[in-house]
Amino acid sequence: MNLNLTLVGQAISFAIFVWFCMKYVWPPVMEAMQARQKKIADGLDAASRAARDLELAQEQAGKQLREGKEQAALIIEQANKRANQIVDEAKENARSEGARLLAAAQAEVEQEVNRAKEELRAQVSALALKGAEQVLNASIDEKAHAELVEKLAAEL
Amino acid sequence: MAGANPTPSEYIQHHLQNLTFGLHPDGTLGFAHGAKEAADMGFWAVHVDTLGWSIFLGLIFTFLFRKAAKHATTGVPGGLQNFVEIMVEFVDQSVKDTFHGRSSLIAPLALTIFCWVFLMNLMDLVPVDFLPALFMAMGVDYMKVVPTTDVNATLGMSIAVFFLIIYYSIKVKGVGGFVGELTLQPFGKWMMPFNLLLEGVGLIAKPISLALRLFGNLYAGELIFILIAIMPFWIQWALSVPWAIFHILVITLQAFIFMMLTIVYLSLACEDH
Fold first, then answer.
1. Membrane spanning segments where (chain B) (predicted)?
2. B79–A3: do the CB atoms touch at under 8 Å?
3. Domain count of chain A?
4. Does the complex come out with an ipTM higher than 0.90?
5. How far apart (Å, rounded) are the C-alpha atoms in residues B230 and B250?
6. Would you kindly state where each structural domain of chain B is located, as residue ranges?
7. In a domain, A149, yes or no
8. Which residue range(s) make up the domain with A40?
């Protein structure tokens, strides 16, 4: 075996073959590998994002729960306060109503007493007039003596 | 073969001659000078180039994959790891699709076969005179750089697969089951010798066909490259380049077929009837 132009011919062929591989074989292979890399990277990204989202969501949920509890406590407190207030108001109302009723009853009683007094006075004057009429056994001018009887009644 | 101008047939024969080391008929050890001396050595000789290149390529494969495995991350894989992962996923998927038993050997075996055979086939794409000329310059007369064009290499692998077939057959079915499978079908126990003949041929044909298919394809491909190489140098590219491009497909396909058939044979061996 000796070295001759065959070697050059093979070198030419090899160069063309390598060029062909570079141009048409290598890029698709590389593309497939990069696509796979990207897919994995995306997957990992998505996973870490999901983990972060979960953490955030848990945090959020905890916060909301805490806020809810606080609000509930606040509402209960307000309700208690309001209830006390209502009870107080009711007591106040009852007391004033009682006082009013009492005053009204007292006024009525006073009125009744006055009226009875008035009536009594009138009856006494009539009775006195009749008594005097019988005592004197004579007709007396009612008009002339009415003033006298009035004075008498007012002293009663 | 140191003639100034080898004839085409000399050129071809030279390229198809392995670097053989062995026992000369006169009882001395040494390299064979020429095909005649190599043939005279008979069985007790080794093809140093076949062994050397296959071991070298095997080491490349092992080293690369080991490196990728050691530096593997769970994050986004880099270039080498990405490539290795693609290979492993591909082989693993093939094994899962075909082999339904449980074995921790099959997938690594398939991966090794695929990558190793592919690398050995890949040497086919290196121009036929490059490495031989290099070794010639270093004083080595013969150098066949494609191990899979040596039937010793392909038969060596297929015999290993053959032993695995027998091992798994006996492991899964027991000695009795395996012998029964060889003798009791397809015609029942009264036709035992005939059954044995049929099944025996079927069994032996597996490694033979496995080896010869790979060897035949690659040998033919290499031979055509050599034939192209004896054409005038300025026209070689016109044939050599298309053949090389076509060969990208062939070498991948042959590596894949060798792997697939190994899986299939072992899967059959593991199947209980």
1. 44-65, 105-123, 153-170, 219-239, 245-268
2. no
3. 1
4. no
5. 23
6. 8-41, 52-270
7. yes
8. 28-154
